[in-house]
């Protein structure tokens, strides 16, 4: 590409969840503007929740996103519980952590094998991997087996891996049976070598993009996605209830989604942030088996988000096996809800980063207001700034085709979810 | 010979969209069936369920199907003559309606999957908002040129079969896939 002026559009980014487009404007060889536009049509969940009984809220809000549905479900449940003053039992928390582990294994595996791995092998699609090539053959089989293990775990513990049935405000409607637990342990144990191969594939991946930014995540006592303190790589600590004072909403007029800054700067949430800030809390077996790659963290290389996801799959496998083999699950009653006028905030780590749900209810248990802040919305400005730098670095000696491919690869490393954010990607070039 | 229209909703079994069929054998010499998967306004839960169904069926599908246009699975997508298309999501804008009509024209069989495609909800929940709620969102509806009312797929194009549910039920989906494959093969032989 030898022009110094360029208008460039990626009409719709592929191998991501949802719909987004990208406009790039170059003048005189300088990138003037990058617009990452989330083009999913708004479905107005924060309006639709008004007037609903609180008991119906978590299931409604799980429909915000198909792939992260169980994260929305559990975050909404936590917000409702905080509003009502309900404290779930230790067993309920274990079952919720197992629900999250099922989600993390299934969702990260979808992203790493089906979306990102074709780039490593120079293929258009995961199914295009060559079965006559021993390594690619192995990856094809590994990918679907790892995904299936996560799917099985989530289905066993939560009733379904998408829009789960059993998690409820105050408790968990069913406990897994002994036969199902034994099968889950068998499947998780069987895929552990595959996860180690996955870690090595992404540790050796030849893609790198380094730019300093701030990382934010819920740092737990036990790496588990549900509890912890919100911290940043610059040393800030944020109280959950105060999140609206620390996340500055930015209206991007071209995007269907809200973007956010923290202290007037972009920041990144997701697996890379979590491993950067909390790798000490990983399961001991994970730390031992992944020691050779954990030395790369903390990292500011966006492509290490893929490696961080692979490490998180291993952690989910190791911790889930421990939980399933050391705990005796017994049926527990779900407490009756006592309504009161209150506001509750739920904060969890969804696969793509920190997720916030706030709910206000009246004395009758009916929702009066709500707010939801999703990971991709928080990453939106950081993505734009990264693409700006990437395009500037690559100009003027690349073709549009290569530029498009490189931009998509970078965006894919964030594993964005537009369904969540709008509520992916079209690239529009303007040069 | 035109394909006989698939029965969308049997009277006796609401969840089982098509009659039970045995798994369709895959003759090795048969030309691959051209598949399209398109997503409009929704949570993409059915896409996720489809990728989970692939865990058990990918080897069979790889031999049987030519995934011509599936953005979730590949970058180089081609919208040309398709045998079976799956439509997920409700229709929220005129642009989406026009795209859906183009897909319909290029496809032999069109299957609506999931609640948003089949009944328009929950993606179309704004259709039932109160006046107060509508007043709060109308500037956004206008700004992004959304339709005044979100539509289910059958309100825009003819639908050959539906797999309802939020998300769709995997067994029902597989039944419809098998029937659609049988129809396409029968048409090729005729």
Could you please describe the fold and organization of this structure?
The complex is a heterodimer of chains A (431) and B (190). Chain A has 431 residues and is of the alpha+beta class. Chain A is 44% helix and 17% strand. In chain A, the strands form five sheets. In chain A, strands 1, 2, 3 and 15 form a four-stranded mixed sheet that branches. Chain A has a four-stranded mixed sheet with strand order 8-7-6-11. A three-stranded antiparallel sheet of chain A has the order 12-13-14. In chain A, helix 4 (90-120) runs antiparallel to helix 11. The N and C termini of chain A lie close together (11 Å). The relative contact order of chain A is 0.24. Mean pLDDT of chain A is 91; it is low at 423-427. Chain B has one domain (33-189): Rossmann fold. Helix content of chain B is 37%, strand content 21%. In chain B, the strands form two sheets. In chain B, strands 2-1-3-5-7 form a five-stranded parallel sheet, sandwiched between helices. Chain B has a two-stranded antiparallel ribbon with strand order 4-6. Chain B is α/β, with parallel strands linked by helices and 190 residues long. The longest helix of chain B is centred in the first third of the chain and has 20 residues, at 45-64. In chain B, helix 1 (45-64) links the parallel strand 1 and strand 2 (65-70). Chain B is elongated and about 55 Å long. The chains are: A alpha+beta (431), B alpha/beta (190). The interface between A and B is large, with 45 and 42 residues.
